[in-house]
Design goal:
It contains no helices and 20 strands. By secondary structure, it is an all-beta fold. Strand 3 and strand 4 form a beta hairpin.
């Protein structure tokens, strides 16, 4: 493959069927598996997080100071947000982008329009890693600053809960199952694995 557009890579993501690959770094770049030449690349000042939807159509990246969203067919962003972030994520169906701000606010955005449709500004800690269910219904977040796990529901305010953990959550150790029936965490460098069941209300149970 080509290295065009890859300068100091910091993140990588691939679509569900492997057709598209996005790399975040000094540039954010998009490839198709059918070509060694990047479809496009654009300077983004070290994108530490990059996500792509399952169908490869929607892309989100963040270098901690500005968040950008793209359709795969253009290097011109659909929208961008000049915010200082601690984490971002994208639902695998490409409908929902989530930005965790350094001021601890967490906001859900309509990917197509860039408009906020749900915000969580309760007095919780700064989130350093997040994962979202494929349909954007349930969001989980962890922090280096607390040994608790936060669970948010897109539609059910009462479903926002905290789970105490024995150790701090390590970055990158939050993942949903493909069918959204549960998610797992690995805490404190593998000392413990927790599995949580989810349901349509956003409530969860730990095992």
């Amino acid at each position: 493959g080509s290295t065009t557009g890859v300068y100091y890579p910091r993140s990588i993501a691939i679509s569900h069927d492997g057709s598209y690959i996005v790399v975040g770094g000094y540039y954010t770049a998009l490839w198709s598996k059918s070509s060694s030449t990047a479809l496009w690349y654009t300077q983004t000042s070290y994108a530490y997080e990059a996500y792509i939807s399952d169908d490869g159509a929607h892309i989100l990246s963040s270098p901690n100071s500005i968040v950008r969203a793209w359709d795969k067919d253009s290097s011109t962003p659909l929208w961008s947000k000049s915010v200082t972030t601690s984490s971002v994520t994208l639902s695998s169906d490409g409908t929902t982008a989530v930005i965790a701000h350094n001021d601890r606010d967490v906001m859900m955005y309509d990917f197509r329009t860039g408009s906020v449709f749900r915000s969580f500004d309760e007095n919780h800690w700064q989130l350093h890693h997040m994962a979202i269910s494929s349909n954007g219904e349930i969001l989980i977040g962890g922090s280096h600053s607390s040994s608790k796990l936060l669970v948010f529901s897109r539609h059910n305010v009462d479903a926002q809960v905290e789970y105490p953990l024995s150790y701090l959550i390590d970055t990158g150790m939050l993942h949903f199952s493909n069918d959204d029936s549960g998610f797992v965490t690995i805490v404190s460098s593998g000392h413990r694995i927790n599995y949580y069941y989810t349901n349509e209300t956003g409530r969860t149970a730990c095992r």
